[in-house]
Sequence to fold (304 residues):
Amino acid sequence: MPTITAPIVAAYCEGLFSKTGGKSYIEGLKNSKFNTAILALAHPHYQDKSPPAPDAFKGDLYYNDTEIFANGKYVGPAEWIPLVNSLTLGETGIERVWLSIGGGGVGDYGNIQKLIAEYGTGEKNPLYQNLVALKNTFPAIEAIDLDDEEMQDTKLIVEFSRMLGKIGFHVTFCPYYNPDFWVGCLAELEKSDPGLVIAFNLQCYSGGAGNDPDDWIQALRQKLGAGFPASFVIPGVSTDSTPNQVQQQYAQWASDGIGGGFLWTYESAGTQAPDYAAAIATGLGTAAALRGSVEVERRPDTAR
Fold:
């Protein structure tokens, strides 16, 4: 069973790997009052280059439009390595870092499906090799967030999650619709890999506007038992709402027993980022959310 026990106050961060100002970005995020940084968005490619060597680039991993891993090696800017790993070090409010894969209309999960079909889920898969390199290069990244808005294929999500678990990552799901699908994936993984998936980062904005976290909590309990923790669900809002509206929304949701909240996105909040973090924490009703403490048993590093 998942072991998150304290409020998450997270922000999806799209601008971390910027070509300029990386240090100031990191310092701002460390002092933003968020306790969790979710780097967004990573994209696995299937074939990036033209012949004569089309296979050489399958499984390359990009952060937005910048290639960061290829052929099992880090190929991104050198300065990004210490910047990312410093997020949880020194004077910082950031206690954990996750990396999100996917988004709308990007084709990532179709690419992952083709890579698994061609190479399997082990060491021969170039994506596996690049994810191992990711873990070794950025030990601050504890979990991979699956934002599949395209495929909705149970076999794919289960196989990919198991691949990530074998490498040593935890997994979060980032759904915005179709609770039967996502709860079904979790139920399958709980049979074979209990505790691998640690949260649903539930989108309650844009395509997920109108989502009620309690509906997802009840769906989880119907499938996995009445004792399944409501804190597994972490609903998110966007900056389309003001900090005051965000605080009011989380005050309403807090009674459901949710495990925290997140903002989409840190960049769009601008100078109000600390206000949004405080709004989530205050709405949840605990100052502890500003510090955060998530007890997650670390999976062993099984990559070779």
